[in-house]
């Protein structure tokens, strides 16, 4: 989970000692300073909050200097303590709201929101979260992508000898009717606490674990499963992994819940292969977890923050559990990537299908296809779909999922999309539409070049990172495409994350 700096108190004020020696900024003398920077570390300052960062920090100004203030909201005037400074910006923590202004601050309902780093926006009303996420997308398109946005930037801009172009339409963010209890997967780090083995989420800005028995964005079934596993491990004396020494056994507990089938999976991530009292542990989990269908072990012995190692095997039950999204069944293995918010996933993928504008005659390539989720949605509307993914295990899952659903007009290949797609073209496979859903770093530059060479009529870009999306859209625009529509989707309410679906068309066909 992403972290923050320090802790909050319930009333928004900190518990630090008084403000003896406050200077003209309302703060104490700093422990460090920089020439030309009007604030110092340790100083308390007053600032107006004018925006939010992609991590949900308030963007404040102090004599023209930018200070990112966690917990602060746009429209507020706050007092903050400066935590760090640089030439261009610094970071601080809010100690008091001096004037709420037009902000939509609410009381976070989560009992551990003050310390847990999992959510960043519970203190902002949900309707405002949706508005901010759209604004975050718009700002990146305009600032990084240099794209005109309808109603936000100039309505028309000069094209490259093509006259003026229409602006990009950015729709309001698609939110949830009930933005709680949506996650179907929990990935819980295990460590030591005062009472022995604990499990929860990382404290803001640290590797310390906050004990968690309730999380309002998790499905209740996941809470129940995690509690049962922790209780069983404590009862049998299973040791918790110590990150400082590299000793101890249990590193993470990963649980999944398939809402449509009710099946549950437990994955024990261990620092070694041998689990003392393994059969007793399996028996207690089976006894205490309703719907348990799979208990697996993943071995991770490396000193790394990466959760999973390369070795996974079944301790009891099935290798996979089954769930459905939009009427399509999926087999989910321990390390499968599967969207954690099924309700919003249907909306996200339905929008991708809409932007593909399929009539049933098209050939579609799904780059970064994963376990075939988007590919199978597209296959219902296209003549033929080709999915490519660099991870062999994901392609195995994709082929299995196609077989489960008896979808025959899909084909999957292992490899880098920028290498596989030219090979397909040499075999006479020319895509009418290319769909990309890359990781946060965005598309590989070689893939951008390949798409520009293939010149499909349409490109549908699904993104989890508006900044790399905007960068790639600029490259595609310069290569002959026009961004038509952009649809933000709130896949992760109460966090700073937003998913985006974009429609692009080749200008030569307009």
From TrEMBL:
Protein name: 23S rRNA (Uracil(1939)-C(5))-methyltransferase RlmD
Record keywords, A-Z: 4Fe-4S, Iron, Iron-sulfur, Metal-binding, Methyltransferase, S-adenosyl-L-methionine, Transferase
NCBIfam families: rumA
Gene coding for it: rlmD
Lineage of the species this protein comes from: Bacteria, Bacillati, Bacillota, Bacilli, Bacillales
Family: Belongs to the class I-like SAM-binding methyltransferase superfamily. RNA M5U methyltransferase family.
CDD domains per UniProt: AdoMet_MTases
Residue ranges of domain TRAM in the record: 38-96
Annotated organism of origin: Cohnella terricola
PANTHER family on file: RNA M5U METHYLTRANSFERASE, TRNA (URACIL(54)-C(5))-METHYLTRANSFERASE
Transmembrane segments: none
């Amino acid at each position: 989970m992403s972290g923050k700096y320090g802790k909050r108190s319930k009333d928004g004020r900190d518990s630090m000692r008084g403000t003896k020696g406050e200077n003209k900024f309302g703060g104490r003398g700093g422990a460090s300073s920089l020439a030309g920077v009007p604030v110092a570390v340790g100083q308390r300052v007053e600032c107006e909050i004018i925006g939010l960062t992609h991590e949900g920090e308030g963007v404040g100004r102090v004599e023209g200097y930018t200070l990112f203030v966690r917990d602060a909201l746009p429209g507020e005037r706050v007092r903050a303590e400066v935590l760090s400074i640089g030439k261009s910006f610094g970071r601080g923590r809010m100690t008091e709201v001096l004037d709420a202004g037009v902000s939509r601050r609410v009381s976070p309902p989560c009992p551990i929101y003050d310390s847990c780093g999992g959510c960043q926006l519970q203190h902002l009303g949900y309707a405002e979260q949706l508005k901010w996420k759209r604004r975050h997308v718009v700002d990146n398109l305009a600032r990084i992508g240099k794209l005109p946005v309808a109603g936000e930037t100039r309505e028309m801009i000069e094209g490259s000898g093509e006259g003026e172009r229409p602006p990009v339409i950015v729709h309001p963010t698609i939110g949830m009717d009930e933005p709680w209890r949506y996650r179907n997967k929990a990935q819980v780090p295990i460590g030591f606490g005062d009472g022995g083995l604990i499990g929860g989420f990382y404290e803001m800005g640290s590797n310390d674990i906050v004990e968690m028995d309730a999380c309002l964005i998790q499905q209740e079934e996941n809470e129940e499963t995690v509690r049962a596993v922790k209780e069983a491990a404590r009862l049998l004396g299973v040791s918790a992994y110590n990150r400082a020494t590299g000793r101890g056994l249990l590193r993470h507990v990963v649980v999944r819940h398939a809402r449509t089938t009710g099946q549950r999976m437990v994955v024990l991530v261990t620092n070694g292969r041998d689990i003392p009292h393994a059969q007793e542990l399996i028996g207690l989990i089976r006894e205490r977890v309703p719907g348990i269908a799979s208990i697996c072990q993943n071995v991770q012995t490396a000193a790394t923050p990466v959760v999973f190692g390369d070795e996974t095997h079944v301790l009891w039950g099935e290798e996979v559990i089954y769930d459905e999204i939009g009427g399509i069944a999926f087999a989910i293995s321990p390390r499968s990537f599967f969207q954690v918010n099924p309700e919003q996933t249907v909306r996200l993928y339905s929008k991708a299908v809409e932007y593909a504008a399929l009539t049933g005659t098209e050939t579609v390539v799904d780059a970064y296809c994963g376990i075939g989720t988007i590919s199978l949605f597209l296959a219902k509307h296209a003549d033929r779909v080709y999915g490519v993914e660099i991870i062999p295990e994901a392609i195995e899952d994709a082929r299995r999922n196609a077989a489960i659903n008896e979808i025959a007009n899909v084909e999957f290949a292992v490899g880098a999309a920028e290498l596989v797609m030219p090979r397909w073209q040499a075999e006479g496979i020319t895509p009418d539409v290319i769909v990309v859903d890359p990781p946060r770093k965005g598309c590989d530059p070689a893939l951008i070049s390949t798409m520009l060479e293939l010149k499909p009529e349409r490109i549908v870009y699904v993104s989890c990172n508006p900044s790399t999306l905007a960068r790639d859209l600029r490259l595609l625009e310069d290569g002959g495409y026009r961004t038509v529509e952009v649809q933000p989707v709130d896949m992760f309410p109460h966090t700073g994350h937003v998913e985006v679906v974009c429609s692009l068309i080749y200008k030569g066909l307009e």
